[in-house]
Amino acid sequence: MDPVVIVGAGPVGAASAILLAQRGVPCLLLDRYPTPYPLPRAVHVDDEVMRILQELGIAARFAEVSRPGLGLRLLDGRHRVMAEFRRDPGPGPHGWPQANMFDQPDLERLLRDRVAELPLIEFRGGVTVTAVTSTSVTYTAADGERTVAASAVLGCDGANSTVRSLIGATLEDLGFEERWLVVDGVTDRDLAAWGGVHQVCDPRRAATFMQLGRHRYRWEFRLHDGEPGLDEPALLAPWLDGAEVTVVRSAEYTFRARIAFTWRRDRVFLLGDAAHQTPPFIGQGLGAGLRDAHNLAWKLAATLSEGSPALLDSYQRERKPHARAQIRLAIVAGWAMTGGQDRAAAVRRVVLGAVWRLPGLKGLALRSTSPPLRQVGRGRRAGTLAPQPTVVWEGRDVPLDDVLGPGWAVLCRPGVLLKHGRARVVWVTPSLDPTGALRRWMGRRRTVLLRPDRVVAGNGWTPLAE
Question: Name one GO biological process term (predicted).
Answer without folding.
Answer: 3-(3-hydroxy)phenylpropionate catabolic process
